[in-house]
Batch of 4 targets.
Target 1
Amino acid sequence: MIAIIDYRAGNLTSVARALQHLGEPCEVTADPNKIGTAHRVIFPGVGAAGEAMGNLRASGLDVCIQKAFEAGKPILGICLGTQVIFDHSEEGDTACLGIVPGRVRRFPGELRENGKPLKIPHMGWNRVDFVGDHPVFRGLPQGSEFYFVHSYYPSPADERLVAGWSDYGIRFCAAVAYRNLVAVQFHAEKSGRFGLQILKNFCSWEGRDAQ
Amino acid sequence: MLSKRIIPCLDVRDGKLTKGVRFKGNIDIGDPVEAAKTYYEQGADEIVFYDITASAEGRGIMIDVVRRVAETIFIPFSVGGGIRTVEQVRAVILAGAEKVSVNSGAVENPRIINEGARAFGSQCIVLGMDVKKVDRSAKTPSGYEIVIQGGRKYTGIDALRWAKEVENLGAGEICLNSIDADGTLDGYELELTHLISTNVKIPVIASGGAGKAEHLLDVLTQGAADAALIASIVHFGTYTIGGLKEYLKGRGVKVRRQW
């Protein structure tokens, strides 16, 4: 069973629907026992980092996620879930879970591309260039695009943790791989066939083989 | 670099498409779920459902349609039409839509924008604007006015001022529909689209007037739109979404070409 962590960060049913479509048993839950017995954990979410961290701490789910990580369970972060696993987010100057070393930064206010100002949030489909050969990111064609909605982006302390790069005025980290954890800034559950491929790969990944 | 989005719009009444959609082979599809699935497979970047149902009973059917669409396609989709309360926003989002589009409801009660954004995030709230060209005046300095009730009622609200206001209230996106261009198949209202798109920081979806591939090219380049809403040109089988994207790509517009 895959536990989808419910910490009141937006609507989490779309991740569950995508897994059901793939025939993978899953449950949206805030119950530490269920998360403790799950084989895999997905940590999704949309919203603001400060509020998310407040909810995680108040419910004890922060400890629960840390434990799941230390137990070696395969973990997949998505969007806000990806951001709060780092040490710190510039959004509301928030101390985060500190599972992956690094920070979350805001896109600079005056981003430009070919002389034209770029809009924030970064919303829509953008290309991700995966690096290395991580099992969760296998089978994706060169130049495949994914659906993003965000104003902040992860910036791992060590560039070797970056599993995928994307470009929006600046080059930024769109996918992370760290031990038994992978995390994506884009919405894999809303990124069509290639997003489903990532979810499917995650469901058969044992949490090893990361660089 | 972001791709420009191509978004088919499906009109629904009582859970059925109001006009059939014809794909290759001229098979008329009346089921919004089937039509959404076909556009998803054809490479639509997003799908918009516009619910013109009047009755409460019909609205319940729409929620069921939303649920079935969410189980079938795995790209963002939005639902609009007659949404006036945060409870309605909630019902649509929980049924599986990524976004909700509010239009007249926001003109009558702008608080629905910030309450909706607070509950589900700005990315969920699309502000639909129906706009008509008018004489410039003290009330409408941009020369464009917000209209409601399908263009029958003028509100006295300047379109540019309203766009900036809804951005401040927390709308995540604007779907900008020109009532003058809508249904003409003569092309989008480029001047209006450019005016709004370059004066707000949130993405603008251009709507109304698409009849040919070059209209999309014009609105995504000269009009500075982030996305183009299309209806008849794909519903009647004149173009496929893939064909439109191929055309745009050939003219230097970045579009998503693998799906």
Target 2
Amino acid sequence: MSHIQEGLLYNTSHEWVRVEGDRAYVGISDHAQCELGDLVFVEGLAPGKAVKAGDPLGTVESVKAASDVFAPVSGTVTERNEALDAAPERINQDPYGSWIVALVLSDPAELRALMDAAAYARFLGEA
Amino acid sequence: MDTEAGSLCRTPLYESHLAAGGRMVDYAGYALPVHYQGILQEHRAVRTGTGLFDVSHMGEILLEGPWDVLMECLQDLLARDIPRISMDRALYSPMLQEDGGTVDDLLVYLAPEWLASDTDRGGPAPARVLLVVNAANRAKDLDWIRSRAPRRVRVTDRSDDIAQLALQGPAAADCLSRVFGRTDPVRGPEAAGRALALGSYRWTSAFLQEGRRIRPMLVSRTGYTGEDGFEVYLSPEDAPWLWQLFLEAGAVPAGLGARDSLRFEAGLPLYGHELDAAITPLEAGLDRFVAPPGTRGKEDCPGIAALARPPARALVGFACPGRAIPRAGCPVLHRGEPVGHVTSGLFAPSFSRGLAMALVPRALARSLDLHNAASPPPDASVIAAAGFSIRIRDRDEPAYPVSLPFYRRSLAQATAFHP
């Protein structure tokens, strides 16, 4: 059973969002990192790129496969977490402490479409 | 990412995988663990100690018939020249289509008596051969063999009656020896002694007794990891018992992920990637497993004649100096022009970098200056001068050719067990 952190918002493709003012930090859930296994490469979009909810926001790769990370909300990338370049395994060790990119939200109303921790737990069948 | 484990076939070790924390996925219709603790850790265990794989999904097809008829049947079915088969050899061979494309790649064993069909009765004892085939090709291979085998050769699918464990790594021999010796103090040490004395690609039978039960098994010094090791074929009822004994003796359970990364580093082909209906064994670099044209006894083997022409393509290893990881299907470019595609690509744990095997035109492959996967990348100017790149997610990443296999165990390791 995977860990689900309170205070974050989740979508059905297993990304999480931490909102701080107009900023949204995006990472992947514990469930997602468990499914992917040892991560060996992480790449977020470069700052300045605008994305719509559902667009690819980056890539995470395990030994075997590459997976897209999707934007849970629309916005413009302000930062990518460069600490993950040399240590992608941090996502395995601490998925909720390891954001991949930060966005400035372009439509904060979209946050209402996301799940809170309890709803995500139900979605995973772990409630 | 969702797998409907409920509708999948289970190997006899399904419960053992769940107990060990296996992350189950659909592989060729079987629920099998992609990893337990993690691919990197499991990969390392096999390179430095002992890993244990459940490979019970592999297909086993039994051929039975009079010796001469059976041998002729094998000569016509398989690319390799077969008469040299002796009782204790495991033979690797591709199976060819008429056009030289590959039906499957498989292992051939002269099957021990305890694997004979149970409906066998009376008459002279037939010769028996066991073909170990890829799970995904089992139905196709059965059709292929049944439609080509002479009437006097009986073809039986024994896949569900035979489980298989692979014990792999430099310490596999120690592990096997301890398990056999402790389980059956009478027969175990002798069976272990015979197993440890096996040369590469040789097999023996072992009969371990536990309580009143005799457990027969075929122990083969083979594997798919580039390390020393054993593959043990046994009854499905006995598989969880032997699995548990190997774990207690220190073997680390390893999943499909590590199986793929290990075979990839060792340059071993995987059907569906380096071999398929449109790829000949010669293109995959398996020349030594294909009888040369004109070989006596191979006149009726379809495909051999088609392979008389030099292959159009060749398998080449590539390394990417950047962080992006090449994957199967990525186009390979030479001076900006597409020249081939990646057949397998992954993050190679032993080298901590992305490596690829790719099919490119043979003329191009022959003129390459090959580097070593274990060495640091050459200068950017050298890589640029060679002119190769691999298109990974719409970006052309520089790549340079490296020799295959990427990984070879040291000569000391390779010879230590075979004096």
Target 3
Amino acid sequence: MSELVVYTARQIRTMEPSMPVAEAIAVRDGQIVGVGNLESLKPWLEQERHTIDDRFSGDVLMPGFIDPHLHPSMAARLLTMEFATAVEWDLPWAEIGAVSTRTDFLDALNKFAADGPDDEPLFIYGHHPRWHGDVDRELLNSINRQRPIVVWHRGYHSIIVNDACYQWMGLDMDSARRHPQIDLERGAFFENGLFVANRHFVPHSLEPSRFRLGLERARDVIHAGGHTTICDAAFPMYDLELEWAALEETIGGSEVPFRTEFMPYAVNTEGMAPGDDDQQRVDLVQQIQSHRERNGHRLTFGNHVKMLADGGFFAELMRLNPPGYLDGHDGEWITPPEQFEATARVLWNAGFQIHVHCTGDEGVELALATLEKLQWERPRFDHRFTFEHFGLSDAQQVRRIGRQGGVVSGQVYYLYELSDVFGRTSIGHERASQMTRLGTVEREGIPFALHSDFTMAPAKPLHNAWIATNRINESGELVAPNERVSLDAAMRAITIDAAFILNKEAEIGSLRWGKKADFTVLNEDPWDVGIEGLRDISIKGTVFEGTPYLL
Amino acid sequence: MRPARPRIPVTVIGGYLGAGKTSLINRLLTESSSERLGVLVNDFGEINIDDALIAERGVNTISLSNGCVCCTIRDSIGSALDEILKIRPLLDHVIIEASGVAHPAKVALYGQGWPGCSLNAVVVAVDASTIRTQSNDRFVGSLCLEQIRQADLLALTHLDLLADSQTELLFDWLNQHSNSATLDARALSIPFLLGLENTSSFDDLPLKTNNFLTSHIAYAFANSKDHLWSILDDLPIQILRLKGFVNIDGSKYLIQRVGSRSSVEATDLNGDGLVAIWPADSCDSQQVTEVLEQLHSRCDPPPTSVV
């Protein structure tokens, strides 16, 4: 048995209501032995060999932060690009800050373009006309005629390229000219036209060394956010075995400062949802459970499974209850509702914890109506059926979620970035201002977590807690103040309640005897700075299973 | 010999779950004889092909002894299309099965601009016995209506389950919700969707001809493409197919119309005349002939090269 290490700190926030604050925490072999102060820990200290480590004596320790829904493999693709975005991303390996004017944006483009060889395609992420003005093919040509340049829109759904890129892609110009969502003159590919471009880009970004570089960067971002546990909420994203090999290599090793729980998709190897066939149902359950054979120390599969209800929020494809969108377009179902119910029934009866991606209030309704039906057919206690993202909802739905025992994992970045623009141009102010209705969720006593869905939003738990408690959007507008959550609830939502959503609350999420020694080291105490100051608190590093990983 | 095609025509078959897309595709696959068909489906589980017809079974593709190939859409429609476009000799026609919750018009964008493809038509399968109830469904009613609106041609399945009076009600209802031609899915075949071998008639089609009427003109001329389009727009919406050749200023154009989607493209193919087909009970011959005659009675003399 190793000797005890006692970390002392200016303040320790345990997230345990019975003893919310402490000054010292004793750790052995990655596990907490006791929490309190040097006086109260004496019975341990008198008996065991120990060292006192006071490196955190000026800092604040919290339970290691938990993000129960993000996507390392998706992030890996994005993070091999250069960033020039109006929103600050604080990337650990880059010096580029927020790029919020046209001049700065063009400077960034010129700098990136001059920075590499002409045969290395350049991908730049983050263009937004509102900040950076219009960018087209000719402009990119004037920056560099030889080097293929691809500029991605901040919202992912369109790109602008130069002539050198056309050459590199070997684009069939004749077909592209006929595509209604490709504009060759401007160099623009949008929506489905983007698939034509991706056909050339995906093999490039998934090339093993590049994909690994992306995953290493994702790992650094996750560490910089102060996380010690994350959940990869959609596995696999690409090719199962190749992806798994890359994940094991980059975030599975003993030097990695966080653990990853995986949430496999509810489809079998053929990409099929189960039909009426009994065998298909058995196959689906076995397929999902068989991932557990991969379990190691850092990477694990528990009892989670992921289902998809309606379309993406940024893309305005979430399903709306009436009345719909201002422009009359319809959202989309990702899974046909009948199939959704049939698959959910198989998973429910097999005892899984089901997580449903549901973004619009009709998507929430489908998940909720399904949960109600399954509860009637075969009641389950403590099933933790999770409403993921939870972009739009109404107060009556929230009460029903509570009565059915559902829990919520909310994406608050929607309301930060989209409540203003969606209010004006997409769904009207009332519904937009009430995005991610967590105040009602808290009042109904429903456990909830906050997630980043990284790369949909920056992987910064304290920023998410700031949004949830302040509800001030990007334009500085206070939206639906009654839906703000309390500071306590927001801090629980990135620690102990996030652990609850991942069914790991017995091991992580708070600081008490017997739990994993996972801490996030802060320069300020969230309860001292209050809700206004949450996003300005610096993460100084983490301790993962007793080992410090300082930033 | 078939003339070389620069692009493979793509037909999208959409429709909600249970509308009969898969049965339709199964039939097209196994019936196909002269045309080599490539079919992209959401999963093989539903596809039910006689083992005797299967030449080779791979992980993502099944090759049939009649030359057809069936491929599953795994990661994306684009990558599945790329797979199937690699096959040599080139396939004659590609069918994409849209997922039950897809907007067929979005899937049709693959036909419009994917390298190597051209869009033939969007066919939406509709279960005649359930669609009216389904259109009121809490979750998918609006989707089903949208799918119907996006169709060039509606293929009605399970029409045999309806009494005559119900059929009539159904057609009234469809008229309110769509501007597309409608046919019994059992009459849909690949030659019907694509056939060009014999432009003077649709005799080669496996149709019960007493259920359909055709109109034919031997030569067709128009002053300009705009003029041609204005005439095509005048045709009754019940026209299921129109095919053939039109001369404009001494150049020859190939006309293809499937339901409400028409294409007009310059062509080197040999042939003359135009033929249209529509369900017998939907409109009378005179209505169609009057429109087509406008192309026939042009004052311009036929170019000498055409005999």
Target 4
Amino acid sequence: MRHDHLITSKQLSREDIEAVLDHAAEIDADPAAVAQRHAGTLLGLLFFEPSTRTKMSFETAMKRLGGDVVDMGSVESSSVKKGESLADTVRVIEGYTDALVLRHPREGAAAMASEFVDVPLLNAGDGAGHHPTQTLLDLYTIRENAGLDDLTIGVMGDLKYGRTVHSLAYALTNFDTKQHFISPESLQLPREVVYDLHLEGTTVREHETLDEILPSLDVLYVTRIQRERFPDENEYQQIAGQYQIDAATLEAASDDLTVMHPLPRVDEIAADVDRTSHAAYFEQAHNGVPVRMALLDLLLGGETDE
Amino acid sequence: MSNDDDNHELRVSKIRNGTVIDHVHGGQALNVLAILGIDGTEGEEVSVGMNVPSDRLARKDIVKVEGRELSQEEVDVLSLIAPDATINIVRDYAVEAKHRVERPDAVEGVLSCPNSNCITTEDEPVTSRFDVLDDAVRCAYCETIVRDDIAAHIDT
């Protein structure tokens, strides 16, 4: 990869994406081959927001490459609590580690932090902005299940604040895909994302209900609509209820439909979907490890076949 | 020079050395000073004419700054709020050079991001940076696009 930092999926070309996914597939097939490749390497984990999957899969990935992690811990127990700036924090931790993973509640945090460090910095989520490593594992899962070209995908839920949605939509502009966006009007894609998609020549197809396009989809990517986005509980219940699916909903879908979700889910995908052949969200979460192993290996310069 | 221009020249005194920013859209003169960071506290002699008649614009503002020659980089920032402005560099009462403002690729440290959740609005050691698009500006950090009333986001 030509990049020192991974801040947004917009910086990734089709070739970059395919290099990561191909390498992830190699690692998935033979993890032992890379088991000691990064012995002695330390990855710094800076999570200013709670995380289970992203943090643990980065930790697992680094350890499965033979390296280790150092973890800032929660904001409550760190010097951030004393008012330290993010710029100072990353400059300090950079001195301890070979690469950094940053999650932060503010948009632009990773872009700013990357200006202060020389080691590779990976954005693990910046507010409602970007989440490019999630996107890579999403793309890996889509490629395994449906292929990335000649693809019709529907993305449903909170499209306004959902950083996984923004990152995925940008990345898919590199492929021959039709993108549909299903959400309540108040949670449609931000105009900044629409602007970028239009720049790439992508048609943004927006819908308020799933029914009209469900039969045409190869992939349905569901995201959580959060309670705090609505002023009152009644409105939340009423709106969120329209964007929940269960096994009965999917009877109208193609037999080959792949259902994905970045997790955690609350009630937007009913448990009865888990038992259908459509469910790919646990596989998707598992893919976080080989994909992040591949990414770390490429960014840390471990690839030997170039 | 048209009669109109001659008339307003009488209203706003000539300067000996400095910069005249002409053909500013009516009502934008104070924003021109704000975006240039000129607030008079450093003793600059500044004359402002507002809503004076103009051939090219129905009403225009004009700003004269004595004793300071603005660089092209400084005046290009003006393109965001005064796209038709002309810049005259004056030496010993004579116009030495005349420039039009050009839209720069980016502006630094002149606008603040309206997204309250942008990292640049935190207490971080970072200067705001906006990429300049055809009809808007965009925060280089959080990517928020500002299309309307850019003057309202001048960092004062």
